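User: Hey, quick favor. My workstation is busy. Could you predict this chain's structure for me?
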Amino acid sequence: MRVLLRLAALILPVMMAGPGAAQNYPNRVVKMIVPFGAGGPADVYARVLAQHLSEETKQSFVVEDRPGAGSVIGTDAVAKSAPDGYTLLIMSNTHTTNESLLPNKPFQLMRDFVPVATINYSDLLMVVHPSVQAKTVKEFIDLAQKDPGKLNYASSGPGTPYHMAGELFKAMSHTNIVHVPHKASGDARNSVLAGTVQMMFDAITTMSPLAKAGKVRALATTGLKRSALTPDLPTVAETVPGYEATIWIGVMAPKGTPKEVISFLNNNINKVINNPEVKEIWLKQGAIPLVMTPEQFDAYLRKDIEKWANVVKVSGAKIQ
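Assistant: No problem, here it is.
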């Protein structure tokens, strides 16, 4: 009898997470874990998403920032949570990069998570502190080549889009610029604003207002074509042919989350992304809405993992 009771205790939670539980989803608070610092794109857009999902479902979606170790700390917490749809991961191409850059991390993206939905993507902005004697990408490259190792660039940590944009730039421009990792994008941004670090690739959505205010000097954007937000600003590719680096954001859930829950979340997240008011605000900020099914997002992730594995190999990027 005791054996049967123990088996029942083990099986019951699994049954609770099945189709029956999915039909009532969500019936309590849903946590959206952002493994990055406050104020960055993932945090900002997760809060927009949480607000609209709360209104749509009449249940609370709350954002919790857990930065550290290049997104590993917060991501691992989600990987170890119950696969019931009540703990979600807000992720970016940091995660696809880390698959090759951090092979010994405690989780594997495509093994321990399932794709839910994409949110948006945006170009990065290459900026320098006003004290740097360079007003163009060409002049910055000349400075870096003249005195190798003297200039440095900030990032929000290993594997983040800001880090990999810098490594790709170094490899393609044949420059030696020192990487200075920070715990969060806000910390990296502050270092550039203070002039303790000379350069940074940052999301155009967060850095553009600072550039317009003259607190940093924008040199270029990182898409293959000029951004509608800064049409007069050249792309890095106009000086370094073929250069491209963007940041995108998506949502994943722990492996084993019921398909009905994944479908529910995908449908409702896509409703938010397709909301005309949301789209208009995001486009003014330089963020392009990105709508996919879970299956499309799965293929997108696998392709991005392969892309950044090649960048890591070519650039020789390593964890410092």
